[in-house]
Each structure stands twice: as C-alpha cells, then as structure tokens.
Design a protein that fits this description.
The protein is mostly helical. Helix content is 77%, strand content 0%. It is built from 9 helices and no strands. α1 packs antiparallel against α2.
Length: 274
C-alpha cells in the first residue's frame, strides 16, 4: 500500500481530534442532563473537548496563531469561559422560553428538519465529501430525536459511535481513496434517476398517507427518566448470554476482515513481484 504523505496524515489527525472534540462536547452535555454526571467532571471533560476542538481548528482557521503547549491551554480556557457564559445565558434565559409546549414543538420540528435535510444532502449531493458532512447533520438530528423520546443511551451512542466513530472513519476512507485525489465529484447517476425518483415518490406518499390518516392516540406525558442504568443491569443479568454471543460474533467478523485484507495484500505483492 502507498505510504500516506506527512501533510495528509497531519490533516487527518487534526480532523479526527476535531470530530472527537465536537462529539465530546455534545456527549458530555447529554450525560450531564440525563445521566446526572457531576458538575466537576462535566466541566473538566467539556474543557478537554473544547481544547481538542481548538487544536483541530488550529490547522485550518487559526494558522497564524501559534497554539501549542501552555498557550493552547490558556487559549482553550478563555474560549471555554466564553462558551460557559453563553451556555449559562441560553440555559437560564432562552431555555425556559423554548422548553414550554410551543418551544418543544419548535425544537422537535427543527431536529426533524435537520435530519431530513442532512439525509437528502447525503443522498443527492454530487460531491462525496459534502455527502459525508451532510451525514453528520443527519446523525445529530437523529440524536436530538432520541432525546425527545427520553432515550438518553441511544442519544449518547448516536453521538459517540456514529458521529465520533463511523463518520470519522468514512471521512478517513474518502480522503485515503486514490480515486478522489483529483476529482471528488463522484456520482451515482448510472443507477437510474427516474426509477429512484419513482420509488421515492411512492415511499413518501405512502408514509404521508399513513401519518395523516392513522388515528393516533394521545398518551399522557410522563417525566423522562434515564435508562442507562436499566440497560446496563439488563446486559449483565437477563441478557448476559446474548450480549456475550454478540461480542463473539463481532470478534469473528473482525478476525475475518483481517484475514481477508492480509490475503488481498499478499496477492497484490505476489503480482508485483511477478
């Protein structure tokens, strides 16, 4: 395999740290809200996440600012203080207005719109890099919908696993793909746009008809309670055997992927030697 250039490796590292910092900011906030994480650990973890974000942005937006070592920590502390004041203002003044009945409806439709727009941008964008970034907003919108359902564990898993792990992996795969070096505007037009448009129209029409015509029953609203503790107890008691079986299956899949990759690399090296 060709060696990755040093400048590209540096960009990938900064992008990875930036994505991890953004995911950490959201994840810690959700843990503090629903899992009752303490104030001191919350502030410490948020400061670390902000530091990661600033270090990642330093390679793109703050190139003229020499941030490293102590200067990075001081700059991050100042930025964290400003963000803390903004968050306090939003939480103490704006949040009570947003989280009444009308505010909750507005936030729900905002997250739903962000999810749909991100999915549409991922599917219809002619630039594969823009599609990957649109997928970020789709993932964040789904995490917000999980919060409205009172499902704190799926919301945190959505942010940490899909945004902080899978999306970063997709971006790395895109940037390391040799076919994208000169022209990132790859498209799937050969799959047939008319057939896809017809299927999309039928699907949207069916879902819209079901949403409008179904006699939905209104249930009384209940207070949201964290479900992380219950899930952890269930995984280690009643569902311990399926949990361990799933772990073995994932391990087998990982070993199989390594074996297949080594076989392909060996075949390529033998072909080059011949």
């Amino acid at each position: 395999m060709p060696e990755v250039p040093s400048h590209l490796r540096a960009v990938l590292v900064r992008l990875g740290v930036l994505a991890a910092g953004l995911a950490g900011i959201v994840g810690v906030a959700v843990l503090n809200r629903f899992a009752h994480l303490g104030l001191a650990p919350t502030l410490l973890l948020e400061y670390v996440a902000v530091t990661c974000v600033i270090w990642g942005l330093n390679g793109f937006l703050f190139r003229t600012v020499p941030l490293s070592g102590l200067s990075l920590l001081v700059f991050s502390a100042a930025a964290f203080g400003v963000l803390f004041l903004v968050a306090y203002f939003v939480g103490a003044i704006v949040a009570p207005l947003l989280f009444d009945a009308a505010g909750q409806d507005f936030l729900f439709y905002a997250f739903a719109l962000m999810t749909i727009a991100g999915a549409a941008g991922c599917a219809f964008s002619r630039n594969i890099i823009y599609s990957a970034w649109a997928l970020l907003f789709a993932f964040l919108g789904v995490a917000g919908l999980y919060v409205f359902l009172g499902a704190d564990f799926p919301a945190v898993a959505q942010v940490l696993i899909y945004v902080g792990g899978i999306l970063v992996l997709i971006l790395f795969a895109i940037m390391l793909t040799k076919q994208i070096g000169g022209d990132p505007s790859l498209t799937n037009a050969h799959l047939g746009l008319p057939i896809g448009a017809a299927l999309a129209a039928a699907t949207v029409g069916t879902l819209a008809y079901m949403a409008v015509m179904t006699p939905w029953k209104e249930a009384p609203s209940r207070s949201y309670e964290p479900v992380s503790a219950a899930l952890g107890t269930a995984f280690l008691t009643d569902f311990l055997l399926p949990f361990e079986v799933a772990s073995v299956v994932l391990l087998a899949a990982l070993v199989g992927a390594v074996i297949i990759a080594r076989k392909e690399i060996k075949e390529q090296s033998d072909a080059v030697l011949e």
